[in-house]
């Protein structure tokens, strides 16, 4: 699967393009801005892009009105096709947000139910009680996602709803040539629907990638041969920044051993979960880390651990944004990309990850662990790489059985001699490709 060897770049299009929060119905060709960033995305080393919602919606994209029409605030279908074509020409795969658990109040089928009530042919597309009332005084009650009644829950047990969604997916593949889907709130989706979606997508396009948003629980419930290829690794998201802020590398190492370690009880060995340090729903990593010198290191850990790394637009140069200030603070419009030391560092990490069999497919074994340092091994059939992190302000001499005399650092390109202990500079990281 191509995604296992990829580095993702996430864009939240409505924010990225500076669209108004409310759908004002005014056509603006904002989505074409992405084409101006393709050079930056390639320079960063990303070879896949994940777009948060792009289809017509009421406000933030997750309350869909029309699954076959690009949001008027972003442009036209023709605009987005040009964007996808340009990305593909640059060697960048395209993954879209599939919001299938719920739709918006402006979704045409729900509007028909509000107008025609019991006589609507779409009344069974939702979970409706005509004897109740809604927060919007519709004269009927309906189920919303987790109590959010601007998000009208779809009835995924209804074959007509499923057919409508699959027709939309076919349209996206045929019109835009998309390479995969990220399923919003996948943990809420009907499992039979997910199986049907996987089978359908497999029949439409080889290596079509299905990623699920999972916040908690056992990822294997959805990540398996019949359902999804991958899920968002929220367990390690928390462990990544918490380990640096508390100066406790045991936390993230414990999570990684639990998920990918060598023991028989390991949960997800062989799975490729999506790794990230922030996204459109959480405080940006530059705002959550207490020590800014840890910023390059958290990316090194994210790229070095098992998984598929994903970088959120703007965070690659250290942009800040606090969740407490509301979602718009996390989804800003940047006029142009910024190139700095952090972007150059992430570019080196991306090159190392994409070109290393050990980093793409290796297992996980902890070799050295203190509160402020960790070294772990990523060994595949073809390659052995050791990832080393020193989060301390002082140099650290690492004494461990390297199993070889020398290595090359995949980040810096420098040779490393393991005789007599190896010094890690303050606030440093290394990806050592070990000589056999």
Regions with little confidence, pLDDT below 50 for 5+ residues? none
Helix content: 25-40%
Major pleated sheet: 8 strands, parallel
Number of distinct beta strands: 23
Mean pLDDT: 96
Describe, in plain words, how this protein is organized in 3D.
- The chain is of the alpha/beta class.
- It contains 14 helices and 23 strands.
- The strands form 6 sheets. Strands 13-12-11-5-2-1-15-14 form an 8-stranded parallel beta sheet. Strands 16-17-18-23-20-21 form a 6-stranded antiparallel beta sheet.
- Helix 8 (234-245) packs antiparallel against helix 9 and helix 11 packs parallel to helix 13 (341-354).
Considering the chains and any ligands shown, give keywords for the structure.
436 residues, alpha/beta, eight-stranded parallel beta sheet, six-stranded antiparallel beta sheet, 14 helices, elongated
Provide a concise account of the structure shown.
The chain is of the alpha/beta class. 30% of the residues lie in helices and 22% in strands.
């Amino acid at each position: 699967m191509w995604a296992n060897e990829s580095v993702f770049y996430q864009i939240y299009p409505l924010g990225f393009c500076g669209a108004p929060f409310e759908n004002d119905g005014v056509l603006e060709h904002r989505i074409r801005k992405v084409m101006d960033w393709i050079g930056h995305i390639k320079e960063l080393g990303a070879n896949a892009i994940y777009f948060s919602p792009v289809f017509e919606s009421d406000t933030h994209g997750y309350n869909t009105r029309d699954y076959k029409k690009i949001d008027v605030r972003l442009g036209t279908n023709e605009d987005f096709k040009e964007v996808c074509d340009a990305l593909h020409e640059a060697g960048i795969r395209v993954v879209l947000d599939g919001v299938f658990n719920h739709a918006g109040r402006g979704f045409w089928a729900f509007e028909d139910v509000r107008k025609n009530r019991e006589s609507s042919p779409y009344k069974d597309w939702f979970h409706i009680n005509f004897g109740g009332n809604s927060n919007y005084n519709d004269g009927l009650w309906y189920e919303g996602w987790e109590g959010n009644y601007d998000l009208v829950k779809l009835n995924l047990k209804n074959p007509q709803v499923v057919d409508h969604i699959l027709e939309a997916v076919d349209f996206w593949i045929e019109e835009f040539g998309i390479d995969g889907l990220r399923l919003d709130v996948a943990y809420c989706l009907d499992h039979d629907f997910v199986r049907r979606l996987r089978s359908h997508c497999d029949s439409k396009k080889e290596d079509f990638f299905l990623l699920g948003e999972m916040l908690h629980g056992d990822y294997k419930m959805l990540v398996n041969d019949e359902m999804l290829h991958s899920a968002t690794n929220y367990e390690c998201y928390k462990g990544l920044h918490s380990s640096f802020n508390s100066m406790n590398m045991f936390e993230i190492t414990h999570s990684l051993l639990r998920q990918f370690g060598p023991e028989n009880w390991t949960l997800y060995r062989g799975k490729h979960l999506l790794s990230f340090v922030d996204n459109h729903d959480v405080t940006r990593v530059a705002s959550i880390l207490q020590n800014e010198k840890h910023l390059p290191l958290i990316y090194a850990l994210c790229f070095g651990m098992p998984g598929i790394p994903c970088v959120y637009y703007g965070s690659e140069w250290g942009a800040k944004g606090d969740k407490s200030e509301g979602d718009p603070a996390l989804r800003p419009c940047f006029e142009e990309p910024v190139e700095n030391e952090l972007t150059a560092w992430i570019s080196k990490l991306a090159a190392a990850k994409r070109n290393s069999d050990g980093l793409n497919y290796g297992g996980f074994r902890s070799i050295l662990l203190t509160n402020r340092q960790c070294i772990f091994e990523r060994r595949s059939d073809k390659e052995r790489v050791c990832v080393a992190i020193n989060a301390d302000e002082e140099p650290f001499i690492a004494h461990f059985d390297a199993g070889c005399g020398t290595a090359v650092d995949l980040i810096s390109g420098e040779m490393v001699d393991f005789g007599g202990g190896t010094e890690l500079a303050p606030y440093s990281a290394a990806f050592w490709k070990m000589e056999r």
